[in-house]
Amino acid sequence: MAVRANWHTALLVIGLAAVAGAGLSLSQSHAEKARLVPPPAVDETGNAATSEVAVLAGGCFWGVQGVFQHVDGVTGAVSGYAGGEQATAHYEVVGSGVTGHAESVSVTFDPRRISYGRILQIYFSVAHDPTELNRQGPDTGTQYRSTIFPVTKGQADIASAYIAQLNQAHAFPAPVVTTIEAGRAFYPAEAYHQDYLTRHPTNSYIVYNDLPKIGELQRLFPELYRADPVLVAARR
Q1: Annotated catalytic residue: which of 60, 74, 126, 159?
Q2: Is 232 left (phi over 0), alpha (psi -120 to 50) or beta?
Q3: To the nearest 10°, the Cα dihedral for 109, 115, 118, 122?
Q4: pLDDT on residue 185
């Protein structure tokens, strides 16, 4: 485990060095600026389950997956598609922007260690900019929309209350445009999209758009940051 952690840390350092080599700071190198927002006033209580799933969309799934793979209490994060039909849940088709799908991440977590509300706090603070409509950074289209796909009514209620809370508090300079789409199935993406941030830390897209999010996660949520990411490849 220590060897694996050191290896992933080395990859992250290589990627961050590429950011520095480009003459950019972490805060300058991506369009979606991290912003620590308050935790939700409404959250799960007394959850006796050992595992729960949150499905979240916030732009390209490489970065969203990468962020949650570094969150303590998360036991799995899989890139995929949600919002459309199974027949169209393929990267080349989803890219057309007419399938109803959004690039999404299915986050499995232990609610005894981290709550659904805290997952959403990280989602709004670090994983993406929830004020951008049908886009994130350089990516545009409904497939890059900010959307929460609740898997239970309880999750839907928490998400709805949280969005209202953030808007009422003016937590962002513009209104949160995140939608809530219940009753939508999640379909895993192709294998080459999984663990993309970890496997390609020097890819220019990852360097400028996604690696800074890992740094901001560590800075804003040090108590929840884990250096050794939980990878899809390790679960197979």
Answers
A1: 60
A2: alpha
A3: 10
A4: 98
User: HSE on the CB side for 17, CA within 13 Å?
Assistant: 6
Cβ pair 84, 94 in contact under 8 A: yes
Q: Distance between CA 93 and CA 100 in Å, rounded?
A: 11
Count of beta carbons in the 10 Å neighbourhood of residue 175? 13
Cα distance between residue 42 and residue 4, in whole Å: 37
Residue from 59, 24, 60, 33 nearest 208 by CA: 24
**Each residue's pLDDT tens digit, 161-190:** 999 999 999 999 999 999 999 999 999 999
| For residue 33, pLDDT beyond 90 | no
How is domain 2-235 classified at the architecture level of CATH? 2-Layer Sandwich (3.30)
Across the chain, the runs of DSSP E, i.e. the strands, are 52-58, 74-82, 102-109, 135-136, 139-140, 146-149, 179-180, 186-188
For residues 113-123, average pLDDT: 98
- The percent of the chain in helix, strand and coil, each rounded to the nearest 5, is 40, 15, 40
Taking the C-alpha atoms of residue 188 and residue 108, their distance in angstroms, rounded to an integer, is 13
Query: For the chain, what are the domain ranges?
Result: 2-235
Hey, what are 136's tokens?
């994130």
Whether 182 and 54 have beta carbons less than 8 Å apart is answered as: no
60 is known as an active-site residue: yes
In whole angstroms, give the CA distance from residue 111 to residue 139: 32
Helix 2-21 vs helix 211-220: crossing angle, to nearest 10: 110
